[in-house]
Fold these 3 entries.
Entry 1:
Amino acid sequence: MDEYKNVLLNIEGNIALLTLNRPEVHNALDPQTWAEIRSAIRKCRFDQDVRVVIITGAGGKAFASGADIRSLRARETLEVLKFESQEALNDIENLDKPVIAAIDGLALGGGCELAMACDIRIATTRTKLGQPEVNLGIIPSIGGTQRLPRLVGIGKAKELIFTGDIISAKEAKEIGLVNKVIDQSEDLLPSAREMAQKIISKAPVAIGLAKMAINISANTDMNSGQLFEKLAQTIAFSTDDRIEGTSAFLEKRKGDFKGK
């Protein structure tokens, strides 16, 4: 286990569990926490054993309750330009490995934006999500105005951001903000690990290429996206995993993928 002040990074087999560990402040996100998140994600990027990352929050009351308000109030105007939270979320989104957010309790403001930067979001019935920044006289500024419309549509994103409304996990699932809702909190991490293991059983190069292609589709035109998709498929065809996968299918057995 790596030593950080505000997060815990525990790598078990092919799964990296990144836990926000400030339960006394509902895992509020201050500059130190963002820096540690970014450091942990970089470690996962270069650790070849890590195939899936799960991000969760300690304490049972919050995934992340948003910005540390004391830190926010004290921050000078131009410090916003130097704040690395946006870069941390871009690192998560661009990581060539799937990232699952396991959300229990509050995911507000920066916490909701952190969840949205992940590839898959699993919540519990007591989860609450929202972008209430307008109540503080500011706006979502670490990708919230960009990722939320892509996930739920422009109209719903404007409603949530303009009103600052906080919604239930049930509504979040209905509008596409979360993928799955778990009844019991104690089943959250087992469910996330089960999904992670399902992903791990697939060809890792193909998973990474698919993630890149999907992400590019949100930021480019159809023709450019399809061109990248074709190039990504060409790379996938060059791998040993492609031979193994097609052989396993023909031989009616489970594929044994090596990521090569």
Note: The chain has two domains: 7-200, 204-250.
Entry 2:
Amino acid sequence: MTFPDRRTSNVLLTILLFVLVLVILYTARRVLLIFAFAILFAYLIDPVVRFLQRHSLFFKNLRGPHVVEAYLAFLIFAAFAAQGLAPLVSNRADKLFRETPVWLDTVTSGDIAIKIGTAQGWNELEELRLKSFLVDHREKIRSLASSAEQFASNVLVALVVVPILAVFFLADGKRIADSFIQLLSTEDNRQSIQAVAEELNTMLRKYIRAKVILGACSLVFYAAAMLSLGFPNAISLGLLGGVLEFVPVAGWMSSAAVISTVGILAHRHWIWMAVLLGVWRMAMDYFISPPVVGRNLEIHPLMVLFAVMVGAECGGIVGIYLAIPLMVVIRVIWRRALSSEERLPLPSELPQAIGNR
């Protein structure tokens, strides 16, 4: 017998192919993430497209014109929201962009310690301690600033690329899915893969529905709390908070930072607002979000919390956002695999099954 034999060669080739696929997936992980977010964004816009298509007098058999209508409605909504927030952020944002490099140099050189000490009434020794700490950690501060700048640039690129890619999924989503199934399936398992794809489609729609419900809850809470405390532009800030609810961790942090900053600048009850924001975040994370997501996806709330915590540990913000969709995908495939195995006779039943034919 020659070595390696045919069976060993097949096993080795399978392992090498599996490793190659993993390497390709890891190398192209950023591209795959952008496509994943584009698919989720397409699921978010799809109900609007289907509503326009169902109630339109023209082009009912075409999705393209209604995709354009949905995007125009989205842009108009974004324009109105930006117009409401523009008086609050335009001048301050321009000042922030101009002064950020100077402020960073002041921090890394330690000169900001003198300003803080003068404002707080510190003695010279306390100022020197803070200045020494900042100088010793200069490289870490610059690295954090560089990471924040890169993250912001990636977010801006994603905000442009993701909606563009989502157009293709909205216009030809079914055809793309059918082509993908044809590529991966054979005549024997095509129906099973089609059933898995249809179930995944249903579950992802339910996931996006749950996120919309959570965003609407945050919108109502933010707007009501700010109106009761006399915040300016409460409705626009509430809309911003509701939209940012779709972004895990960084979304609610950004909402809290913007709302608190507006309260401080407007001399409103920002301390009470900060307390309400903290209470609302705890209620959302532990009492509202798990039941809403679990009820829509038929998953226990404890499993939702577990998936989010594992996603945060493995992938940070992106892991938090994709943890539940990935759990849904794994759950659907696992259930289908178990159901297909249950339809097969056990080894002990094979003689009886053959004899009954």
Note: The two ends are 40 Å apart (CA to CA).
Entry 3:
Amino acid sequence: MRRFLLLFSAAVLFSTQVHAGGFQIPEMGVKAMGMGHAFTAVADDPTANWFNPAGLAFQKGHAVTVGGVVVLPKVDFSSNTSNPFHPTSSSADKKTLLVPHTYVAGSSDDLGISYGIGINAPFGLEMEWPTTAVFAGAAQYGRLQAVNINPNIAFKVSEELALAVGIVYANMYKVDFNGTALPQNFKGDGWGFNAAALYKTEQFNIGVSYRSDVKIKANGSSTLTATTQTVNNAITVTMPDMLSIGVAFHPTDRWTISADADWVNWKKFDQLAFTYTPTLAGVGSSLTVPENWKATWAFRLGAEWEYSDTMRARFGYTYDPTPISDVEFTPLLPGNDRQAVHLGYGVDISDQATLDLAYIYVLVATRNQTVSTGTSIVRNGTYKSDVHLLGASLTYNF
């Protein structure tokens, strides 16, 4: 029983839809979406709160951005000859997911500082397989809903250089991991910090943004289906620290070319350690699940063409590798290395309001899983995935 529950927990915890590495959601700004998220050295609207808060220091007045991203994933599974239940096939539920965001930016000439706040959801998940899938007993449904609140202060060191610091509050307010053996839920929160710099000239920008890890201390309940026993659980989960390095070049007044390298330290997500009160029958008072994810670098390219005084076209490309090896593979994270093409459009609908739209197509490399063993052998098979994302936001300056 303990071995089965260990495999169950390893299968479901912190899996996400396949459009991002690990359980990260990079679509935190619609203008940036259109430019491949290569925005660390651009950061010229209120979404700078997330991509590079030092960009707030170069913005004038006050502005608010409100927007969201619709995620349309598709995942299909078919067993291979290494699966004892071959042939069999299943398709994940085609959910339509909405990821909202809000940003505020402002400046104070009297104090010589700029400030802002971002409210978004950079980490999350929802993945559901039918109960008839061969692996559904251990990996059928996972959900993580969380909110990130991040106030920032930025100031200019010189006309070209700005620095910023901020505080991060992360609240995982709804986490569910359900299988036929051990449904579990919990919620919790934690704190971190961020720091950033932006060097900006008329033709060339360099940006750096760092976000610390965040330790989430959470509590909830776990139910052993076989005995209907429900106990309290406690777990500490570490969100990874992240580093983004970007450059932007303005070859003409109408064009911006940008590139980013984003490092996510998934090594911080090394294990999951549950404690149960009272003792969970057949399991004990604790359960530790090794994860052993690896740190990854994602590479992003973007461009913006201001083809009129009020309209802009955007283009981008992303390569984003998976942090999970074949050994740690789970059907609730059926992704692999990803490539994405990005398209975007921006229009000034008045002197104060700007509408941004974006579309992303994510092509996930087909995974042919063959190394799952033991009770996990039913995961072996071919996983084919792709994702469509649509984003829209409105920025109002006042």
Note: The chain is about 5% helix and 55% strand.
